[in-house]
Structure formats: C-alpha cells, structure tokens
Design a protein that fits this description.
The chain is of the alpha/beta class. The chain has helices at residues 3-6, 13-20, 33-41, 45-52, 64-92, 103-111, 132-141, 194-199, 216-228, 238-249, 256-263, 267-281, 289-298, 304-319, 326-339, 344-357; strands at residues 100-102, 123-126, 145-146, 164-166, 171-176, 201-206, 209-214. The protein has a single domain, classed as Beta Polymerase, domain 2 (2-Layer Sandwich). The protein has 16 helices and 7 strands. A hairpin with a 4-residue loop joins β4 and β5.
Length: 365
C-alpha cells in the first residue's frame, strides 16, 4: 500500500469544497451510503442538498429523498429557533442591555446563505453577569424552565447559567456571562479577557431587532477554540464550515495583525492554527501564506509531524466518520489533548504511545 493510499482524501472533502464555492451541481454518484448517512448525522444534510440540488441526475439517486428530508426538517427546526430567539430579544428589549448572540444562532443568521443550513442544538447568547437574574425572570415568563437537577452547584463556577428548556417549543437556551469556563485552558488567553471581549462587541440586527455580535476576528478565534479544545467526533465538521462562511461573509477582510497579536503564545493560537491549516490543506478557503506562517510562529504546540497527525485525526474521525469504541475513543481523545500541549519533550515521550495506538495504515511517518 502506497503512502498516498494510506492518506486518501476523505469523500466529504468534495462536499466541503462545493460548499465553499457555492456550487449547486455536485453529483451524488461519487458518494457511498455510509458517507451520506454520516454527513446527515453530522448536521450537513441541508448543505449537501443545496450543493446537489441543481444536478438533474441526482433525482434518481438513492440518497436524494434522505437529503430532501434533512433539508425540510432543518427548515422547520431552525425556523422554530429563529422565532424563539426573536421573541427573547423582544422581551429583553429595554430590560437589559442588548443581547450578544453567540455560536450557531449568530453565524447562521448573519453568514450562511440561509439560516437553516446551519443546524444548532440550542440558542446561545451573552449578557453581563448582573443581568442574569432579570434574564432568568424574562425567560420564565416566556415559558422556559431551567433543567439542571442535582448538578445546579456545578454552574456556580461555570461560564453560563443552567440551561433553559421550553417544552412546547422544544428549544434549549444557554445564557452566557463569559465566553469560556475558567476551567478551560483558553480562558487565560489574552483574547478572551473581559476587556478585550467587550471591545470586540459590534452592534448588529437580528430580524430587525437590535443585538450585538462578536467581531469577525473574535468570532473566528472563538469558534476555533470551541471546536478544538475537546475531541468531539459528531459535529466536528461544523466549525470548518462556519469558518468558511465567516470568511465569505467578510470577503476575507480580517484584521490579522490583531488576531495574531491577541492569541500569541496562547493555546488559542494552537487551536486557530489547527483549524486554518486544515482549511488551507484542502484548499477550502484561500488563506494568505504569511498569515499561516505568523500563526505557526505564534503557537507553541505543533511541528510538522504532530500537525500531520492532528490532520489525520480530523480526516479519519471528523470528516470520514470512522466509528470509535470506548477504548479507541479514550485513546484518540488522549492523543488529541497531547497534541495540543506546548511541551515538545512531552510530545517526544508520548510519541511511542500514540504510534502504538494509531492504526498503522494512517500513522504519520
């Protein structure tokens, strides 16, 4: 088996490239059933349908009805979330400072061609800590109830309140008072300090209602951090697609100097470099070479071999959807965390461990 066969490009990279170039004529003939099923499970069903809907030959594909169903379901579910968010914003107006939209609800409504193309599990928004009691009261009047049970104490040191749930709407809400938990490594990064975050809030509109959003620069680092700080197989492609749409929305016009200086020598630089280097590797978005060079120098975790290993994990588990049993999930999660450490000597010590764990056919040589 040749090196190229061992590192064969995942099938879904063709879909990611079609999404990036806004194609609508992608042929389904090159995809196997497992790949399509994994794309739908990962939340890419509506995007897949959009990328293939203009190809007349796809109407006879065995996958066509599943993709159409995924698109229709997403329109209904996300429609409910958009309606719920608009209601919450309206109820909070004049009661607390403008809400800052986060994660899916922010990027879907602002950056995606259609909001339903970006699935989300809940509504996330940021408020000042002192506004939490008032927002709690407002949400309860709207029919939301907190569901935390015996774990309520956990949220005393968390970055958001216990989640709220509206049974009739089937909508979850997370009210944040910080972007990251103090227990997370990236929380100490300069870019996530409260003063920096406040200075990077931008006035915006959500369906005609006044809100705030993170600047595109902070948004990019935040989504990379949220994606890379934990190994999450399902949904692992979402941040990649979020970044693609964010780049398209701002037409590549980002203040890179501010980004690089704000993440320098922090774990946030490692997370951002991993995301952007993977996007660049598969040519999903054009990223200036000098930016990748500056980010490489700003981070302290990756060298060439360890970066290849991280990319291989993304290819194999996030994009291809390779199944993991309990043992292998623990092993790959450990490898993922070790790769992010800013300790080259520990990388060397662990190399024998993850070389013995990684399947031989995709081990980095």
């Amino acid at each position: 088996m040749t090196h190229m066969q061992r590192r064969r490009r995942p099938e879904l990279i063709s879909l990611l490239q079609a999404i990036s170039s806004a194609r609508g004529d992608l042929s389904l003939s090159g995809f196997n059933p497992g790949t399509v099923a994994w794309a739908i499970q990962s939340g890419l069903g509506p995007l897949f349908y959009r990328a293939a809907r203009k190809n007349a030959d796809n109407s006879t594909s065995a996958f066509w009805s599943d993709l159409k169903a995924a698109d229709l379901t997403a329109r209904i579910v996300i429609g409910d979330h958009l309606e719920a968010m608009a209601e919450i914003i309206g109820a909070c107006r004049g009661q607390v400072p403008p809400l800052t939209l986060l994660k899916g609800i922010s990027i879907a409504e602002e950056c995606y061609p259609e909001p339903h193309l970006r699935l989300m599990r809940d509504l996330d928004f940021l408020v000042q800590r002192e506004s939490l009691p008032k927002v709690k009261t407002i949400l309860e009047k709207l029919g939301y109830r907190q569901r935390c049970g015996d774990s309520a104490q956990v949220y005393n040191t968390h970055h958001h309140a216990p989640p709220f749930f509206h049974e009739k709407k089937n909508v979850w809400v997370e009210v944040h008072h910080a972007l990251l938990s103090p227990k997370q490594r990236a929380s100490s990064a300069n870019i996530f300090q409260s003063d920096n975050v406040f200075n990077q809030l931008r006035h915006s509109q959500f369906q005609g209602r006044g809100v705030r959003r993170l600047s595109a620069e902070l948004q990019l680092v935040y989504l990379a951090t949220h994606w890379a700080q934990d190994f999450q197989r399902v949904g692992g492609m979402v941040a990649i697609i979020d970044a693609i749409h964010l780049f398209k929305h701002v037409d590549g016009q980002l203040c890179w100097e501010w980004i690089v200086n704000s993440v320098r020598e922090s774990i946030a630089a490692t997370y951002l470099y991993l995301l952007l280097s993977y996007i660049d590797r598969h040519q999903l978005v054009e990223i200036p070479t000098e930016i990748l060079r500056d980010l490489f120098l700003a981070q302290r975790s990756f060298g060439r071999p360890s970066l290849r290993t991280a990319h291989a994990i993304i290819d194999r588990y996030y994009v291809t959807g390779k199944q993991l049993g309990w043992f292998w999930r623990k092993a790959v999660t450990l490898i993922w965390l070790v790769l992010m450490l800013a300790v080259p000597t520990l990388h060397s010590l662990m190399r024998a461990t993850y070389d013995s764990i990684l399947p031989r056919r995709w081990r980095v040589q």
